[in-house]
Amino acid sequence: xxxxxRTRTTSxxxxxxxxxxxxxxxxxxxxxxxxxxxxxxxxxxxxxxxxATGNRYALKLRSFLHRVLFKFGCWxxxxxxxxxxxxxxxxxxxxxxxxxxxxETNISKLWVETGGKLEEELxxxxxxxxxxxxxxxxxxxxxxxxxxxxxxxxxxxxTLHLKAAVEATKxxxxxxxxxxxxxxVCYKQSIPSDEDSSISFxxxxxxxxxIIGPLDCFWDGSKLLGPNPPIYLNPTMSDLTxxxxxxxxxxxxxxxxxxxxxxxxxxxxxxxLMSQAGITTGYTEKWCLDPMDPDCPTTAANYNSREIxxxxxxxxxxxxxxxxxxxxxxxxxxxxxxxxxxxxxxERARGLQTLFQLMGGTNxxxxxxxxxxxxxxxxxxxxxxxxxxxxxxxxxxYSIQTGESRDELHAFTEAAATDIxxxxxxxxxxxxxxxxxxxxxxxxxxxxxxxxxxxxxxxxILGVLLVALSVAGGLGICSAIGxxxxxxxxxxxxxxxxxxxxxxxxxxxxxxxxxxxxxxxxFDERTGECLKRVGVSVSLTSVxxxxxxxxxxxxxxxxxxxxxxQASVVTVFNLFSVLVIFPSILSLDLxxxxxxxxxxxxxxxxxxxxxxxxxxxxxxxxxxQQCSAHHTPVYNCSPxxxxxxxxxxxxxxxxxxxxxxxxxxxPPPRYTSNIDDAGPKKVGPSPNRPRVAFVNxxxxxxxxxxxxxxxxxxxxxxxxxxxxxxxxxxxxxERYYAPFLLKNPVRIVVLFLFGGxxxxxxxxxxxVKDGLDLGDVLPRGTREHDAIVVQTTYFSFFNMYIVTKxxxxxxxxxxxxxxxxxxxxxxxxxxxxxxxxxxxWLQYMRDWLADLQQNFDEAWTRGHVNASTWMPQASDKTxxxxxxxxxTGRAEKPTDPGRIVRLVLDDGLIPExxxxxxxxxxxxxxxxxxAAAQASIKPNPAPWKQKRDANxxxxxxxxxxxxxxxxxxxxxxxxxxxxxxxxxxxxxxxTMTTSDFKSYPSGYPFTFWQQYIDLRYWLFxxxxxxIGAVFVVLSIVLFNPWAAAIMALFLAMIATELLGFMGAAGxxxxxxxxxxxxxxxxxxxxxxxxxxFAFITSCGSRRERVVQSIGHMTGPVVDGxxxxxxxxxxxxxxxxxxxxxYFFQVLGILILLGVLNGLVLLPVVLSLIxxxxxxxxxxxxxxxxTPTPPPRP
Length: 1193
Prior knowledge:
By secondary structure, the chain is an alpha+beta fold. The chain has 42 helices and 18 strands. Among the domains are: 132-246 and 281-423, no CATH class; 427-599 and 1014-1177, no CATH class; 797-970 and 984-1010, no CATH class. Helix 20 (457-480) packs antiparallel against helix 22 and helix 38 packs antiparallel against helix 39. Keywords: Glycoprotein, Membrane, Receptor, Transmembrane, Transmembrane helix.
């Protein structure tokens, strides 16, 4: 191309003379119709000369930004290769930091309000129990064996359940050169023992793992308890196993045979311990499922009769474990889907459940430090063994053949829950890469043209790759600074931020296609000119989006804060890439055009040659005839519809122009002394004006994507296609869509239609339900999904604890009882089969003391004890009670023989002064009750074990700082059920909380579902703050609150419509949809700001400015929307229904709503109540007046 040399460094800078300005005006109609868009300094000069009025403050700020962006763009063009290489290396270096990425799946670290009450409670619980924050207990975890069928309360179903449970207890895994069996990982309650005692060793092996299930109603439940292998005693006694063992009979045999030995007292202690816990005949007197079983004991209820047990009748009262007083299983805990008749008889049960209790990670680590762990034993290894065993457990259950039974076996473990969260949070490489490839393909095709010098296919490919690299780099920096990833950031951010970045990329590429071939702009200033015009719009949207994401950080939810921070960082990276690196790509592509190289295969020359496209009035007729034949997209063959500047057919009006990606919409302006003068004016050409731009007169011969062949024979497909008009999306929108949309009937229909949509959306917001069904998270048809469905349908129960802390427990006993009673009366709190509440530790302690008091009273009556001592015939219980009655609780005088008091007062309370002495005695002498109470008292009580000696002092335990009351919650199906029980329990705790009595609830429901208590509040606060931030930023940057208010209104509408769609489609409101709703504001900015910004920077009436804004912005907006949708569409192929329903559908509808609101409703609203233009010509009109040319010499 031929370009006149220039010395100026800024467009319309101080060195630009008047002739250059006039020359530019002759060639650039947009400078007169969109002055503040093209050159704010020129527009400001029109205001200074009194030839226009407008927003002077906005123009001053815009003028400064234009100057900076122009200089920066020129510098980039001069150093394009260096900028590109350094920029790519910088982004690639940031991507390396992704190796430090941390995936957070801990619910308490994601959805627990930062600085809130729940976080404080979890931290306190973790500190006192040495558990991981957010865990419900550090002692054990539950693994579920579930069976579902038409009626599982019969012999066949119970037999199948027994088979599966027995196989589960045989599971072993080999890790760290050790074989880990069920006995190695299960949870057991230790009993007081003497390390040198053989009896203690035997009993420690006999005490089984904790297993809860319906098999405990039958003798067959003993088959799960072992020990394996059985314990050999002597040739005269059978090996010890729970299948044949009568525990109380066995201990009595030992007591009788060893009563004169040194361990007689120890045996008596064990006898008392077993009696207190209800360990009596074991399973030997229960019904056998199969009375013909050779191992069925002779003492079994149906051994002699050989009667088949009535399973429904036996299950009706619930079951009890080997310690019947402390291990009572309510029917709803072990049998699900129960249907009873009016008399209470079970007609049918749909499910059975057995719970295997494993040690928690901390317990596992501590237990095996000196057992099987070895020198390299660690907490991570302990957790790894537990997870491996759980996975093997699930595999074993699913491998069991059910035979002819129609029942289904299912297993659900903590490992499965962990795997689900990890799998759900992981990024699907196939989906991300597939979505990005679709974006790349669309970007290439949408920017490709038939002529090599006008095609930008490679620019589209590199642009998408650049934005993808920018997103990865931004996330890499987030990883480096310690921002954790979660499901929201891995499933939403890669597509959302790529879509936002690609939108800006398309905007710049489209306008660069127009500017790059403007012959009157010096070649080395064209990138600067593009950046000057488009950079403000790109910066404006990015700053608005960034401010929105930053303001979303006020939400105290860690997951939402992490999302907001990551989105903010990536937004900055995208802005850097689009304003710095992408212009260097455009500059290099500009050089390719000048050298007449092919688009994608830029190493090859194009066979076409550059020529001049003449749009002079003299050649209009000829050109018009050639348009269809040669497929030359010259739209100046005839004036545009509605053009007020007809083309003059005179030889004096010779004006040459070039091809552009988006061709000139109207002929260039003529010089006139007065724009309002009637009649055509003849205009002479400027002798020094450049007339050549690099355009091919013939298409490249590169096959497939550059050209239709001109030489195609008549009637061929090529010839037919060549006759079609070459119209871009923007041209179609300006010529046909905008005039149609602005017809009054159409505008009325649009307003009523969107008003109806908004009304339906508002209604939809009222039916949106909160919650997240775990069944939706898992792929349908998988065993985990089926297990979750069975669990939530038939066994929707959860552990719950009421934590009491930091008060004088001795003086607050009555409040503890009241708290326990009031919580127990709340709906969904499970009761025992006899309708009593689950006992808590103070009740166990009181009952133990009451039993001792009763024994003491009987001994006193018999004369076995008096005020000064006990007699030899006094029992161990009596001696223990005597010592307890002497305790004063005072360090200076710990015992008082003259103290007159009872262990349990008449009002049912324990004496306050000796309360902590009694606590030490209870924990040491009734450990099974203490274990059953699940009290987790901290600091740990000082366990004191009774000895029949003269030492009367019982140590005092430290004051209690932490204790728990256990409850079971059952029947929780819907999210509303969880919210209801959370509110009810917290209401009770808060009502009873005083300065002397503090309590709070704990457990999985309160950790996970607590977020739904305040989720809507924080969501609406976030949306309001984000929209408000966008409004403030746009008002300040544009100095136009009117335009900012319209955009804020549309952002609120998009969010409302999206929330309404969620209600109509059954998408429940949870953390992830909440994140998408916040992100919808960012995507909505892209669809509204560009159109509005183009509207206020144009001159003319509202209708004229709407047409211009649609013409300029429809192409980039549509291309950005389609490319984003193509990226999201890959989610439709996910195996997770949750991803399809909560991500693909929601994001797809969000894009559709953005396009409809931005390109349909927004233009109509702007045409009716749009803000005034930034520049208004004096006297009105759709353009500034053309300056009077200097007189000819």
